[in-house]
Write the structure tokens for this entry.
Amino acid sequence: MNSEHKKIKKLVTELYDIIKEATIKLEDIRKNCDHPEFTVEMFSWRVGSYYPSRICSICESSITGITKEEEQDCWDKHTKESKMYISSSYGK
Ligand SMILES: [Zn+2]
């Protein structure tokens, strides 16, 4: 490992720390949100798996209570260009 590699490795470690800190902040915001509004979107909780879910319009977390109709509408309008919402525990 040369000095350039060491610099990059240090930066990678710092970036992972930022991700970790941001994930904790995000989980805290989501825990305290009362989810007053939602849209129905595709939600992915792990790589390769996704399903229609109610997504809070404020904190963007997946919330419970989706109806069969909302689920079907979401599958019907789903395209490759649809935005995918992901779990904050993704990749853990
Ligand atoms: Zn919310």
